[in-house]
User: What shape does this take?
Amino acid sequence: MNWKRYWDIILYRTYAELKSEAQMNYMGYVWWLLEPLLNTGLFYAILILVMRESSAGALSFILVGAIIWQWFQGAVMQSVGTILDSGAMLRLVYLPKIILPIISILASTWRFAFLFLLLLLWIMISKFSLAPALLAIPILLLLQFAVILAFSLPIAALMPYFPDARLALDISLRSLMLISGIFYSVEEFQQRFTFGFSQPDGDLGGCLPQRIVGWSLASLVQAYLCGCPGGWMDRGFCVDLSQD
Amino acid sequence: MKPIIEVEKAGLCYRRPHGFFKGSRSDFWALKDISFQLHSGETLGIIGRNGAGKSTLLRLLSGIISPDRGKISIKRGLCTTLLSIGVGSHSTLSGRENAILNGMILGATKRHMMENLDQIKDFSELGDFFEQPIYTYSSGMHARLGFATALQVDPDVLLIDEMLSVGDKSFRDKSAAALRGRLKSGKTAILVSHDSGTIMDLSNRVVWIEHGEIVKIGDPKVIMPEYEKKDWSH
Assistant: This one.
């Protein structure tokens, strides 16, 4: 196995995928920013205008959730069909199949990194206050990336055998989004969806980065299993913002 | 001399896809008990009618698929590549970028492709189009870029499936000559072709396959006349 060559292929095809995506639309890379903003606007309208929920800092609450959810959903949806869709190429050359979904996941991660940096910038310019628990963010990002890999790779491998799974996955992800951290705070989430895991230990007060560190692993697993992959880090920023 | 590739009683079965409500699965053995050896510097021709299993055999040898029975032993570290045009291309990338990408997918390193970009540009005769996205190319230009790229990928064993020339008349002659030159320079290769002249001219040995089984294997001068005289009506 020449992994150096495969790694070069992964990087080059990731670049190609990002470039292709930008060139296929008139507005190119602007969509990277526009898509989460439009999603945020939509979710905000549903939450505030339709459901009449009111909460301080709701816009930033939703924005952070939407950006992180989009990373998860985009990576999963774009990667799961890659092996199936590359059938013509795979009939002509040998490539380890795992590199195909990884290319799409990296492309989504690159888009997320761009948005995340903008988000950090915006938060720092506005009302962000530093908390030691922010050190947990890199761990959460790695955890999120691991969840994306764990979710996407097995489904991408099974997709050529069960092509119908793509439709089922689309519906499942939409359902998952509705119970994700975009719409519910962790406290609400705990009250509404408790499936027998232990309740979080530690202090629930204060901003969420501190809570993240204090909470038990079981709670973290519960949040992920319940479809809340972005519902941790985002709360940290939002609580901070809303407290001002 | 020890062979660099040894195929021992290799068989491959295609399982025809079936839906949930479409009854039982049916199997089709495209190759049955294929055995032969390939030595370094040799060009092995493969002949047979359509559907005989020639392309499947090349896919087995390039590692794209594995045999369902039997064994294929390839010398450790040996790179076998099925010569293909424009595999894994991205329409929005330039000719230059696609040449690098295609070459890497076909088995070359990025560095090797970067070092040979000028030769690819010259051979493909694309001029300034080399820097343009390939969705602006005609089909002939696509083929020229693909062939020029594939020619620069230098695997240990070249697997060629009926692809000796592409493009218009002048480029067809040029590409055929380049590939023949490569094969005659002592490159180890396996060549599938329906053209008796090509097989006679380029091959040291020939394997005749029918219905997934080897009919004969040996000197092209002996086997090709027999192959051509064969009455296919039965």
About this structure: The longest strand of chain B covers residues 27-38.
